[in-house]
């Protein structure tokens, strides 16, 4: 019996479909060309972009009509409505660095006491309270520093943005206050000096903005942007508090006299509530970066990002930030809220300050008392009085057939029976907003929610019915009580604000973690700051729960996320910029990282929410200490050219036309204030250079505490500086004394005095899923016995192997069939496979030869077959994806 199997290339099918439906499948793509050079006028730049589009569209009218954004300031590129085939053709043109889809859901938001806690206004440990105030005075409260905020807009009437007593706007400011619906130029002042909005790409993807969902202007209907911008630079507002009077005190931004500029780039997703998320389109974001750079901002705060990391050449935040950093603009970004999963961090480019989230020393205590008088600790910011309720477990009162074993007891929408729930309190196994809404829908009058995260770290919400969140490990106590009593009841105790809790900080359970999947030789996050239950200004158009049934109005709100921690670091960067205006963005990051703290208010190592000692994959260099960052002694500086060389050694995908040197530098040698060595085999030596920004005639001695299994040498052991600005280099040699175990990481402090650390020389053994010693001759990834085949970066000839197992008829034979594409020769050996029995295995090889050099991003697809219903699907041959030939 002879059968044939054909390989149908997936990407080939995609291209065929695209070619027949191009006009129906137009999508927004960004075409990135690097940076503007020369003195082209705005019209000349636009005509230049039209020429690119004309080459794929065929007519000048189509080229003009499909254009969405022309980036004309510093970023060289545009966005347009293109078919996948047209985008592919543009990517092949000389001078084009990257072409990538502006996906409508790639980027989303990363959503008082905090400044006291991080030592800006009140000291802990050896730092006395006047130190923070001294820093503010020294920085003139940041009065001439301009911070650009990319977010959901701003509520300009908030008292946090009043400009009483502020000096005139700096002459360096070139930005605009753009009018729109519910917003005009009079809404800007000497505090809020600029406001723009960007929604061309949003409307290209979702259609015209629904005026019921948001303002077509810089005005904030979500609250997020108002919260982040007031955290950075809000004025001091006494007697501020959240709904119910929680967290009462003086609300203030970290740099109360900085100037703020809002760049509204995030918008509601049609069909979803604000609580379910907003979206920030890639090309809208890139347009905001382009304007912010030319407007004259000194710091950019970006509390948004993807749920995972993206390659630099496809990441508008990484691209925009690099152009900003080239002009000495500091860019701080949130790390993401995908924790506690490892390798979940976003915004990992090394020119960005990536900020994790940790707790304050403040909770909102609201214990519950069960009917058997057992008290269980809980937290809440929902205003209510002490009250006793009959209590039921959600899993016992569900509508039959609406849940499974996996979803039982979770209070999912539409699952609770109104006949039983009405007038009772409901215990939900885990939950937040939507669980409380389901209890309310079913007639429940209160709820006890199991914390969605294990351990401590409750993300507090102002629910619409009395609600308390209990820690996850206490859920079983509540459940056992309910199930063992005929008439269970519960008393919810009125919440109260408690300050001075210990231990603090601990890492917020939601904060995204490393390692860095894009470049494991760069440690991310860089630093952590308060991001759990932070009070700041809010939009009066956004209800505190951000759901349609909530009609309450608040001026200040408690919110959580790395979105809240990022503006803390942006504010510190603004203060350092005011004190040290000539410092580079890298020096400012270094100052914060090398002075960060890795102990809590009990003098012990910072932990995660479960009480386990946290690692640099969670907090980076540690918890920010602004006063100490103002005088770090030494800094690790890096230039724009250093970042280009890093890209050469890391990905070889450059964000600027640049010819990489032949001897590619190791990514670990980027002059970064932390060090990560991935896949350490035996011995690695890395280099660093420090610049003296401290005292003249100073010396620094090395101190190392190597982890078990490693030897570490630093040379020289002493650094001498005669003057400010002098640079000294040193090397660190790391040796693994024995093979590492799977996913083993060793952390070591390498310092040149206790308060100026190269925080965490991180040595990572091979990233393997099992303890295993790799062979000397490492196998090609293409030889994994996979039912499809891709050969990347084909140069001349490659042979790959596959093995098939007979699960069909006995005594069967299969003959090869090949249809090689033009420019390639392909041989398969043997040409016939014979099987006598079920379960027998046979191996074959495929040899692919390129007859001539390929073009950039060229793909060839070939059918390699042994039978039609047993496919080696998609033998894909791909040329080197180089940016230049």
TrEMBL record:
The active site is at 151 (charge relay system), 224 (charge relay system), 563 (charge relay system). One of its GO terms (molecular function) is serine-type endopeptidase activity. Residues 28-106 form the Inhibitor I9 domain. Residues 142-622 form the Peptidase S8/S53 domain. Residues 1-21 form the signal peptide. Keywords: Hydrolase, Protease, Serine protease, Signal. GO terms for biological process: proteolysis. The keyword Hydrolase applies. InterPro entries: Peptidase_S8/S53_dom, Peptidase_S8/S53_dom_sf, Peptidase_S8_Ser-AS, Peptidase_S8_subtilisin-rel, Peptidases_S8_3, S8pro/Inhibitor_I9, S8pro/Inhibitor_I9_sf, SBT. Residues 669-753, 783-867 form the Subtilisin-like protease fibronectin type-III domain. Residues 215-237 are annotated as: Disordered. Belongs to the peptidase S8 family. This is Uncharacterized protein. It comes from Fraxinus pennsylvanica.
């Amino acid at each position: 019996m002879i059968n044939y199997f054909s390989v149908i290339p997936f990407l080939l099918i995609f291209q065929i479909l695209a070619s027949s439906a191009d006009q129906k499948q137009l999508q927004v793509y960004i075409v990135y060309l690097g940076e503007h050079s020369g003195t082209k006028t705005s019209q000349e730049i636009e005509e230049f972009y039209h020429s690119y589009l004309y080459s794929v569209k065929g007519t000048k009218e189509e080229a003009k009509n499909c254009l969405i954004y022309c980036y004309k300031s510093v970023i060289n590129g545009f966005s347009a409505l293109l078919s996948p085939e047209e985008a592919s053709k543009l990517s092949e043109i000389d001078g084009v660095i990257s072409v990538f889809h502006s996906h409508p859901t790639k980027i989303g938001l990363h959503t008082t006491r905090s400044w006291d806690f991080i030592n800006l206004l009140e000291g802990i440990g050896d730092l006395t309270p006047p130190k923070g105030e001294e820093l503010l005075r020294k920085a003139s409260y940041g009065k001439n520093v301009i911070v650009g905020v990319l977010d959901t807009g701003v509520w300009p009437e908030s008292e946090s943005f009043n400009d009483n007593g502020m000096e005139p706007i700096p002459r360096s400011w070139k930005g605009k206050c753009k009018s729109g619906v519910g917003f005009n130029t009079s809404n800007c002042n000497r505090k809020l000096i600029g406001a723009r909005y960007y929604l061309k790409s949003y409307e290209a993807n979702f259609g015209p903005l629904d005026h019921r969902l948001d303002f077509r202007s810089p005005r904030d209907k979500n609250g997020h942007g108002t919260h982040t911008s007031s955290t950075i630079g809000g004025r001091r507002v006494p007697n501020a508090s959240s709904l119910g009077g929680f967290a009462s005190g003086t609300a203030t931004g970290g740099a109360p006299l900085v100037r703020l500029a809002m760049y509204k780039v995030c918008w509601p997703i049609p069909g979803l509530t604000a609580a379910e998320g907003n979206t920030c389109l890639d090309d809208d974001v890139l347009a905001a970066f382009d304007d912010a750079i030319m407007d004259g901002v000194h710091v950019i705060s970006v509390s948004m990002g993807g749920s995972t990391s993206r390659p630099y050449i496809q990441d508008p935040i990484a691209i925009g930030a690099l152009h900003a950093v080239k002009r000495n603009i500091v860019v701080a970004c949130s790390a993401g809220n995908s924790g506690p999963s490892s390798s979940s961090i976003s915004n990992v480019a090394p020119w960005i300050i990536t900020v994790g989230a940790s707790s304050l020393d403040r909770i909102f205590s609201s214990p519950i008392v069960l009917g058997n008088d057992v008290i269980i600790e809980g937290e809440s910011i929902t205003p209510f009085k002490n009250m006793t309720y009959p209590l039921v477990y959600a899993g016992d009162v569900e509508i039959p057939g609406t849940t499974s074993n996996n979803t039982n007891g979770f209070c999912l929408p539409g699952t609770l029976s109104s006949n039983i729930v009405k007038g009772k309190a409901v215990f939900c196994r885990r939950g937040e907003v939507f669980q409380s809404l389901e209890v309310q829908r079913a007639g429940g009058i209160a709820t006890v929610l199991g914390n969605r995260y294990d351990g401590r770290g409750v993300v507090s919400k102002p629910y619409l019915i009395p609600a308390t969140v209990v820690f996850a490990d206490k859920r079983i106590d509540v459940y056992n009580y309910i199930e063992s009593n005929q008439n269970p009841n519960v008393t919810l105790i009125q919440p109260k604000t408690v300050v001075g809790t210990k231990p603090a900080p601990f890492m917020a359970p939601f904060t995204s973690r490393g390692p860095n999947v894009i470049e494991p030789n760069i440690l991310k996050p860089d630093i952590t700051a308060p991001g759990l239950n932070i009070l700041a200004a809010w939009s009066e158009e956004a209800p505190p729960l951000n759901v349609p049934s909530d009609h309450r109005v608040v001026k200040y709100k408690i919110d959580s996320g790395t979105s809240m921690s990022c503006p803390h670091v942006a504010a510190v960067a603004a203060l350092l910029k005011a004190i040290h205006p000539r410092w580079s963005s890298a020096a400012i990051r270094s100052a914060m990282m090398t002075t960060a703290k890795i102990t809590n208010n009990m003098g012990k190592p910072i932990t995660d929410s479960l009480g386990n000692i946290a690692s640099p994959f969670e907090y980076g260099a540690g918890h920010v200490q602004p006063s100490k960052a103002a005088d770090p002694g030494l800094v690790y500086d890096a230039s724009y050219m250093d970042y280009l060389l890093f890209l050469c050694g890391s990905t070889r995908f450059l964000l600027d036309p640049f010819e990489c040197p032949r001897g590619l530098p190791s990514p670990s040698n980027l002059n970064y204030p932390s060090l990560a060595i991935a896949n350490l085999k035996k011995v690695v030596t890395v280099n660093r250079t420090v610049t003296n920004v401290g005292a003249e005639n100073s010396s620094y001695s090395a101190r190392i505490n190597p982890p078990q299994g490693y030897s570490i040498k630093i040379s020289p052991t002493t650094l001498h500086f005669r003057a400010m600005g002098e640079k000294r280099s040193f090397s660190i040699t790391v040796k693994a004394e024995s093979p590492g175990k799977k996913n083993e990481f060793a952390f070591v402090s390498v310092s040149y005095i206790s308060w100026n650390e190269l925080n965490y020389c991180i040595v990572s053994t091979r990233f393997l899923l099992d303890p295993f010693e790799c062979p000397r001759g490492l196998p090609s990834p293409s030889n994994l016995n996979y039912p499809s085949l891709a050969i990347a970066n084909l140069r001349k000839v490659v042979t790959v192997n596959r093995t098939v197992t007979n699960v069909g008829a006995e005594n069967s034979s299969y003959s090869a069939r090949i249809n090689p594409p033009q420019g390639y020769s392909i041989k398969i050996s043997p040409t016939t496979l014979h099987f006598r029995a079920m379960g027998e295995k046979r191996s074959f090889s495929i040899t692919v030869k390129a007859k001539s050099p390929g073009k950039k991003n060229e793909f060839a697809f070939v059918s390699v077959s042994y039978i039609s219903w047993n496919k080696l699907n998609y033998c894909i041959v791909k040329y080197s994806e180089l940016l230049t030939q």
